[in-house]
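ok new one. same drill as before - structure tokens go in, u give me an amino acid for every spot. 268 of them this time. try not to just spam alanines like last time pls lmao
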């Protein structure tokens, strides 16, 4: 999940910039964490504790009110009696990566991914986006086979993953829907050769950069292994200590630090 948070932070400086190149510095003075990181950590905390995703999202989300939440989510976060609001936005996918790391079967991953989404994003596309992302993380972690990941996710959710970053980039723009973010983020991973290359692919699409890179980053970390120490150090520097502690506890609980670094350096 450090890979997802790093993707968010790296992408934050490009969110509305329509970056269409892979040639950019990973971190700049404006690089920061956003709601993607806050809510990813909230999901991780729920997994570490009582499994109550809604409670964790509300508690941690309220501690960081200026993280960049969308309008509907802000209203939900402030409401004394929150109800799901039928969203198909990519917010359900950006926060779900811990599920793909923590659970051990496809059925568990799909069930828990739906649970992380449905208290806000109860539209079928919102739930599907969360499930596809978590499944991609799980398969990247356990199967290590990009062709299998492509086939399995296509069969289960119907996304068109037989595309390339170069093919998507020219006609792609800012889009906050699951259906126009999650497939592209998965392709950014499938079309990569390393964790860093995957992040550069995602941002270079010129869309919702922090969320694209957050989704892609979680999948790429699961496949390639832990992010490079220079990236991890920067994430620790930028992320509030409260959030970093939860993320580190999650990594320790699920032995994420024991994955071989850059397990597939050539994307095989």
């Amino acid at each position: 999940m450090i890979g997802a948070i790093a993707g968010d932070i790296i992408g934050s400086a490009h969110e509305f910039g329509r970056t269409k190149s892979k040639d950019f510095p990973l971190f700049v003075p404006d690089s920061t964490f956003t709601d993607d990181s806050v809510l990813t950590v909230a999901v991780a905390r729920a997994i570490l504790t009582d499994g109550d995703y809604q409670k964790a999202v509300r508690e941690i989300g309220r501690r960081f009110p200026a993280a960049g939440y969308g309008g509907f989510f802000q209203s939900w976060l402030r409401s004394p009696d929150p109800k799901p609001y039928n969203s198909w936005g990519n917010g359900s996918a950006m926060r779900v990566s811990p599920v793909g790391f923590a659970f051990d079967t496809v059925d568990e991953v799909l069930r828990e991914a739906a649970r992380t989404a449905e208290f806000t994003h109860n539209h079928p596309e919102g739930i599907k986006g969360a499930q596809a992302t978590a499944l991609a993380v799980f398969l990247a972690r356990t199967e290590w086979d990009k062709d299998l990941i492509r086939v399995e996710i296509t069969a289960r959710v119907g996304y068109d993953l037989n595309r390339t970053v170069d093919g998507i980039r020219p006609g792609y723009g800012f889009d906050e829907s699951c259906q126009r973010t999650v497939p592209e983020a998965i392709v950014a991973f499938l079309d990569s050769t390393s964790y860093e290359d995957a992040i550069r692919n995602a941002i270079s699409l010129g869309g919702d950069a922090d969320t694209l890179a957050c989704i892609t980053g979680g999948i790429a970390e699961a496949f390639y292994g832990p992010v490079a120490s220079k990236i991890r150090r920067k994430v620790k520097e930028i992320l509030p200590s409260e959030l970093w502690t939860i993320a580190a506890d999650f990594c320790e609980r699920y032995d994420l630090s024991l994955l071989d670094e850059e397990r597939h350096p050539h994307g095989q």
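The two ends are 22 Å apart (CA to CA). and btw The chain is about 60% helix and 0% strand.
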